[in-house]
Amino acid sequence: MRIRILSSLVSFLLWGITLHAQSPAVLSAQNGIGRIGPTPAATLLMPYFEVNLNIPGTTEMTFTNAEAAPVLAHIVFWTNLGFPSLDFDIFLSGFDTLTLDIDAFFRTGLIPTMGPSVSNQGPFSEPNQDFPGCSFPLPSQLPASLLAYVQAAHIGQELPPGFGESGLCVARESVSLAQGYITLDVVNECSLSFPGNPQYFSDGGAAIASNRNSLWGSYRTPVGGFDLRFEEPLVHIEARDSVQNGFWDPGDFTFYGNLEGGSAADNREPLATSWGVHYEMENGVTRLVYWRDSGVRGQGFTCGSLPAPYPLSMARMIAFDEEENTIELPDFGNTLRWNTGFEFVPNIGPLFEEGWLFLDFSDLDTGPLAPVGQAFVTTQEFAPTAATSLAALPFDSALAPRPIGTRLDPVFADDFESGDTSAWTLTFPLGGFRK
Q1: What is the residue extent of each domain of the chain?
Q2: Which of 45, 284, 295, 419 lies 20 to 30 angstroms, CA to CA, from 125?
């Protein structure tokens, strides 16, 4: 395992921290809770991945320990219908960086070598240590039968005998394109538990999952049909305090809240419910990449059908051109209906060759926190001479969503355009939605 000094130094500089003879024990740059940003976090989300099982690619996920002390993390692979197919534990020594080659993992079952006895201990790192329940190093490769199961799960094929949900499907059908998303949680001990299982979360981070905000990272994905690869930050989701101390209340929307019965026991900030994204159609195409909460954890279903609650509902999608003309896009909104995926923005018309889209995901029918629905969106724009990738702008937090039907007010009221920013400040509190 290697420590990428350049990446670490850049991050230290971004956080306004200078390395001296003795390193800080923890690199911290907390945002206000409910304001998602690239800061050390207790959970990292890779919102979407795709791996062509027949063609080698370059899909990767890199994560770094922001502490001098070792950290343990639990990685879970989810299908595009929210079914957890596989999990294992990740060991990172102090300030360590690990890259997971997701393409190689899905095609060959390759797992990085890691553990207290094999992970390097750098000059600023505290001594490596064992964690309860762990048996490192892990095997370097998945068994062939388990790899076949994971592949079948993520391409929507019938699951093989000998595994849970055998004979059923757990994803939308695809011939060879494995799709899904990934979560990485800081944990206190090794386990084979998924988020939502009993004892995975306990208020205050006292169970399997921890509340340590220790991880940061990025991911790289190729784009089919283009000789390009984008690198973007992972979604950094902070944990904070506890229900017992009064920071959270039962019923608050948290990131894993729908899997925890709305108890807020995961203590993790949620994502936004509505987003603004730029699109450009005059000289290229725009692709939306999204993740959204379905309100439930995926289960096996009869192949060739779709389980409830899919397709997911969506409250609204509005296109704005550069002259503030608008048009509702109900048909295109019907395509953003899974836990994760991508869609190319359609040709809206000659007046809408460039502008922005308002996406409102808060209209769920299922889950203990319905109808509020959290999501994350990023855009990828392709032109003949350039390609760009940019995260969308969140307009709220699931902790404080604006009412359905008035979600463009008061942010875009006349007072805002005339210079009165009070509505904007109320909608986006500078200190976050929780102190």
Answers
A1: 5-260, 274-427
A2: 45
